[in-house]
Amino acid sequence: MNAYDNALRQLEKAAKLIDLDKDVVARLSTPERTVMASLPIKMDDGSLKIFEAYRVQYNSARGPYKGGIRFHPQVDLDEVKALSFWMAIKTAVANIPMGGGKGGILVDPKAMSEAEIQRLSRAWIKAFKDVIGPEKDIPAPDVYTTPQIMCWMADEYSNLVGKKQWGVVTGKPLDFGGSKGRDTATAMGGFYVLQEAINELDLKASKLKVAIQGFGNAGSVAAKLLYDAGYKVVALADSRVIIFDKKGFDVDKVIEHKEKIKTLAGFKGSKEIDIKEFFALDVDVLVPAALENQITKSNASDIKAKIILELANGPTTPEADEILFENNVMVIPDVLANAGGVTVSYFEWIQNNENNYWSDKEVDDELKERMIPAWQSVLKNSKEYKIDLRTAAFVTALKRLAEAIKVQH
Ligand code: NAD
Fold first, then answer.
1. CA 25 to CA 295: how far, in whole Å?
2. CA of 338 to the centre of ligand 1 (A)
3. In the chain, where are the structural domains located?
4. Is 209 an annotated catalytic residue?
């Protein structure tokens, strides 16, 4: 399964439906720019290692490129292209004046020391400094990249250009140009949309069982928000293990456990289950919050959840989407469900540019004001065209992108 092929199939499906202008389809079928570099890093033992690195600038019709940098052993060019395309769709769905980009390094950061990761992060900036910048392309965190890494990157860029340029990346620590609410934004945005969805389906949060795959920034914050709102979180997964407790987890205790021993394994009272059992669980809400291509044609028909909230990017393949639609499962697509992250990144960039910082409440109110209309536009298109929410999100975004592309040509 190639994530970029999947992305192009999603584009084709939505474009056909609205009879999208051929020139717009052509423009959106390929990135505006792809940059690759090899980063030489001196390791702690004195050896030299070379790491492959990428920045794909997919589309800037609506504003500067925006999108994270992923450090992962499976990063490849097609994955970065797919992720950058989804960023262009996502910024348009959220209706923020930015385009889409994404970057990555093929690396296993878990096998590196902090000092090595710092050298690697700074090397990424050195390699891509000419194509990024606060008015051109603003990276952010993604899988296995952290506020600390964003801080090193902003610092490196500022050193290279000889002035403080904190707005060059977002997702920075709070005392280094970060925004309040950025750490919880992705899950919070998803939470707002989920609340709208359960109202739409006439469900009650307090009766709903949830399973979450991924316990990092997106997954662990979602678990906490849902737990606090009365949902019963019965299954959780990280890269090593999937844990289940039919009574529901005390998420505060799980977070403590994960912080202490760095894995979910061994959480008191839980039972380990495998991935097949995980997707077949009798839950109401399934939250993929790890990597792409997790829900496929081989497990989609096992899914009993009524709602899938895609906090991860690209977790569902097109074949699985069709099965889920037939089975009446509401899939809240990544480009809507996790758009809270890029939305608060955009707020962070505004605050950096103005050198004026917002309160938690201001961030949260503004986030809600973006997420709810985004949900409403997508739902409206879904009803109007009688289509699934993913295609409806693409329709929403493509209409906005088409307007921006057409006036520029
Ligand atoms: P993260 O690095 O903080 O966490 C990733 C989590 O996924 C970890 O708990 C890891 O153990 C788990 N994981 C990795 N491989 C797994 C596997 N095979 N099975 C189960 N769990 C696995 O990353 P994150 O920021 O939480 O990102 C997770 C997803 O959310 C990604 O798809 C990312 O693109 C997407 N996303 C994140 C943000 C954000 O603001 N963090 C915004 C939009 C989208």
1. 27
2. 11
3. 32-176, 179-409
4. no
309-342 pLDDT per residue, tens: 999 988 999 899 999 999 999 999 999 999 999 9
For the chain, the distance separating the N- and C-terminal CA atoms, rounded to the nearest angstrom, is 35
pLDDT tens for each residue of 164-187: 999 999 999 999 999 999 989 999
> Which residues form the pocket of ligand 1, taking CB atoms under 6 Å from any ligand atom?
141-144, 186, 213-219, 237-239, 289-291, 311-313, 338, 341
Pairing mode, strands 209-213 and 285-288: parallel
CATH number of the domain at 32-176, please?
Answer: 3.40.50.10860
Q: What gap in Å lies between CA 342 and CA 64, rounded to an integer?
A: 13
Question: Ligand 1: which of 217, 336, 371 to mutate, judged by most atoms within 8 Å of the beta carbon?
Answer: 217
Compute the distance from residue 352 Cα to the ligand 1 centre, in Å. 26
The amino acid sitting at 304 is K
179-409 homologous superfamily: NAD(P)-binding Rossmann-like Domain (3.40.50.720)
Q: Would you say residue 71 has pLDDT above 90?
A: yes
Question: Which residues are CB-contacts of 8 (< 8 A; sequence separation ≥ 6)?
Answer: 29, 85
Please tell me the predicted confidence (pLDDT) of residue 205.
Answer: 83
Distance of CA 98 to the CA centre of its chain: 16
The per-residue pLDDT for range 203-229, each reduced to its tens digit, is 988 889 999 999 998 999 999 999 999
Beta bridge partners of 57: 33, 101
What does DSSP say about strands 65-72 and 137-141: parallel, antiparallel, or unpaired?
parallel
Q: How many CA atoms lie within 13 A of 191 on its CB side?
A: 24
DSSP-derived secondary structure letter, 64: S
Mean pLDDT of 85-103: 97
Strand partners, 307: 285, 330
Q: How many CB atoms lie within 10 A of CB 12?
A: 15
The candidate with the shortest Cα–Cα distance to 288, out of 273, 310, 320, is: 310
**Residue nearest to ligand 1 atom 15, measured at CA:** 239
Task: Kindly name the residue from 66, 81, 90, 102 that is annotated as catalytic.
Answer: 102
Domains 32-176 and 179-409 share a fold: yes
- Please tell me the pTM assigned to this model: 0.93
Nearest-CA residue for ligand 1 atom 8 is 216
Residue pLDDT, tens place only, 337-363: 999 999 999 999 999 999 999 999 999
Residue 215 Cα to ligand 1 midpoint, Å, equals: 7
Atom of ligand 1 nearest to the CA of 338: 43
Q: What is the pLDDT of residue 291?
A: 86
